[in-house]
Design a protein that fits this description.
This protein has 16 helices and 6 strands. It is mainly alpha-helical. It has one domain: Myeloperoxidase, subunit C (Orthogonal Bundle). It has a two-stranded parallel ribbon. A two-stranded antiparallel sheet has the order 2-6. Strands 4-5 form a two-stranded antiparallel sheet.
């Protein structure tokens, strides 16, 4: 028996919160708003909470008392994706689902504001509502962003800073981040990505030598959009899929000369956020999270969550020697394959999440605290179609039930991973979309060194939504300046990646 909408929200809500307006996604073929559906006519998958909770438990890996030493290879690591993309993906998600009214929208139509804005890659998690409406995010000149306290521990970045924070009157109160989106302080890594995006804006202001805030803001947004399309997206879905969707095989070609191919994401009016993306496909990053990370060479590796000792949990000030060395998270030059100076890989995109995600801290989520269970239940309550239904709608053959397993994509576990249908026969030809996206990627596994990216359904949904949102934004570089290329002083060998953006940020 289904619960009422209010009961559903109350049951699954945690401190991380629900996306405002998400539960208002309509099935009507005439409806388009902030949230909508790519596959409006497909029936929802047929599940119940009991079997979804069992699947969530099965997707939670066993606790590792002793994580793999850095001097040894870890068979759960993804050789094709470094760890920084996990958190850059989280940063992008927070940009697309930001709630307060966009500062860009205020510039467009200050008399026609609405409660729910169109999702855009516009960095409102950085800029908030702009220097006039949220001056506490900016320096007195109204051009530069305020930065936080200095951080130590990164010998390559002597100017490292955190995010700006309030100053509580009691040690019992946390030092909350003063940023455009408070979610970007929920862990130490995304918090420092936020801080470096603030610094990149300041670098842009100084490089342009401008007193025009909107000009600097536009250039920052376009460089960020470039990184999303030319670095993050190829890393996650593969360059061939990007070329097929974007239609721009070589940078500099116009969209009209080689038009994008959006087969399934086709907004009739304003771009919208499909629930198949936000509740299903884009949650792939949860499987990429490692249980432990090295931030820099001066401190030991830290767990993502640990109630008994220091961890990467955010929403607070953290020690001043926790400056992140970004060459431990992204490829920024030569690095050894093993040891404390290596680039840490993300974990593989597969149907197993690390054990700490099965019991999230109260500061992040409660009732239930299990991330796999929360994802599965949310998809059920959003009435998402099964993965097999979407495969058929895309003209693809669904993965046979005998090839859908639950567990890690490694040589040690692959042969013994249980079948999805062994958890419940109700999963026969009826897999939850989020699980199916992960299982589809897992089909690429051959050996422990096999790079794993999103498959044809997950890659197509993520790629089409990214490209569609950017094409639907009249202020994106694809619409205003399709021949745009990043500034040469920020580029390296003619390329501009997230590593180059971070390197430029270090100048400020």
């Amino acid at each position: 028996m289904e619960q009422s909408g209010a009961a559903v929200v109350k049951k699954t809500q945690g401190h991380h919160g629900e996306i405002r307006g998400l539960n208002l996604s309509r099935r009507s073929t005439q409806f388009e708003g902030r949230f909508g559906r790519m596959f409006r006519t497909l029936p929802p998958g047929q599940f119940d909470e009991d079997i979804l909770n069992k699947l969530g438990q099965a997707m939670t890996a066993e606790f590792e008392a002793e994580p793999t030493p850095e001097t040894q290879s870890d068979d759960e690591e993804n050789s094709g994706i470094s760890a920084g993309y996990t958190y850059f993906g989280q940063f992008i998600d927070h940009d697309l689902t930001f709630d307060p009214v966009s500062s860009l929208q205020r510039q467009d139509d200050p008399d026609g504001l609405t409660d729910y804005r169109t999702p855009r890659f516009d960095l409102d998690n950085i800029y908030g509502r702009g220097p006039s409406d949220q001056p506490y995010l900016y320096r007195n000149d109204g051009l530069h962003m305020l930065l936080g306290d200095p951080l130590m521990g990164n010998d390559h970045d002597k100017k490292s800073r955190g995010v700006p924070r309030n100053h509580p009157q009691s040690d019992l109160e946390p030092a909350r981040a003063l940023i455009g989106d408070p979610r970007n302080d929920e862990n130490v890594i995304v918090s420092q990505l936020q801080a470096n995006m603030l610094r990149f804006h300041n670098t842009m202001v100084d490089t342009l030598k401008t007193k025009d805030f909107e000009k600097a803001q536009r250039m920052v947004r376009w460089h960020y959009q470039w990184v999303v399309l030319h670095d993050f997206l190829p890393t996650i879905i593969g360059q061939p899929m990007v070329d097929e969707i974007l239609g721009q095989v070589k940078p500099g070609k116009t969209a009209t000369a080689n038009p994008p191919q959006l087969k399934f994401y086709k907004p009739e009016k304003e771009p919208f956020m499909p629930v198949e993306f936000s509740v299903g496909a884009y949650r792939f990053g949860h499987s990429m999270i490692r249980p432990i990370y090295r931030l820099n060479q001066t401190i030991d590796r830290l767990p993502i969550f640990d109630l008994k000792k220091e961890s990467l949990v955010g929403f607070r000030a953290f020690p001043s020697d926790w400056a992140i060395e970004w060459d431990l998270f992204f490829k920024m030059g030569s690095a050894p394959k093993l040891g404390p100076k290596r680039v840490q890989p993300a974990y593989k995109i597969d149907t197993s999440l690390v054990n700490p995600l099965g019991n999230l801290p109260p500061s992040i989520a409660t009732n239930p605290p299990s991330l796999p269970q929360r994802n599965l239940l949310r998809g059920f309550r959003m009435q998402l179609p099964s993965g097999q239904s979407i495969a058929r709608a895309m003209g693809l053959d669904p993965i046979p039930d005998e090839d859908l397993h639950v567990g890690k994509a490694n040589e040690a576990d692959t042969k013994t991973n249980p079948l999805l249908t062994s958890i419940s026969p109700k999963f026969a030809d009826n897999a939850p979309l989020w699980y199916y996206i992960l299982a589809e990627a897992q089909q690429q596994f051959k050996t422990d060194d096999t790079p794993i990216r999103l498959g044809p359904i997950g890659g197509r949904i993520v790629g089409e939504v990214f490209v569609g949102l950017m094409l639907g934004d009249s202020h994106s570089y694809l619409r205003q300046h399709p021949n745009f290329t990043p500034r040469p002083e920020f580029s390296r060998k003619g390329e501009f990646m997230i590593a180059d953006l971070l390197r430029a940020a270090m100048e400020s």
